[in-house]
Hints:
Elements lengths: L1 H19 L4 H16 L4 E5 L2 H14 L11 E3 L4 H11 L4 H9 L5 E5 L6 H12 L3 E7 L11 E5 L4 H23 L3
Parallel strand pairs: 1-2, 1-3, 3-4, 4-5
Amino acid sequence: MSHLIQLHEAIAAATKTLQSLADLDAQFGKAADLIDQCLRAGNKLLVCGNGGSAADASHFATELVVRFANDRTALPAICLASDSGILTAAANDYGFDEIFARQVAAFGVPGDVLICLTTSGKSKNLIRALEEAKARKLKTIAFLGRDGGSTIGIADLDLLVKSDSTARVQEAHQLLLHVLCEIIESRLDKR
Length: 191
C-alpha cells in the first residue's frame, strides 16, 4: 500500500510542477526563437550539465543530431558532458570548475548558443561555462531549479522550475527540452 501512496504523491507533485511551466511561456518562447535563429544562421548548440542534467543534455543533443519525431536534416548540437577524455583531462589539468568552460573556448563561436542545465543552480563549472560563453559572444540559456542558486541571472535567458525536488525539476526540464525539439522540428518544416 505504501508504494501506491508514494506513486500518487509523486504524480501529484509532478503534475503541480509541470502545470507551473505555463508561467515560463514568454521566456520559453524567447528560448525557442534564440535556438531557431542560431540554427538558421548555421551555428550550433553546446549543451551541458552534471549528473542527471548531463544525461538530459546528452539526450537533447541526440534528439537534434539524429531525430526527435520526424526524419529531417541533422542539426548541430554538441553535449559537452559526453567526451570522457576531454572531461578528465580538463579536470586533471585545470580543475573540475573548468571542464565546460574549456570546451566552450574550444568549440564556441559568436552566434552559437550554450544551454546549461542545473537543478540547484550551484554548479561552479556551469557558471564558468556561462561566463566563458559571454566572453566569446555566445548566447546563453540556463535551465534552473529551486531558486536558481548563484547561476540565476548569468544567462541571457533563465528557465526556472520552482521546485525543491531534484526529480521534479529534472522531469520538468525533460518536458521543456522535448517541447523545444517539437518546435524546432515544426519550424524546420516551414523553412
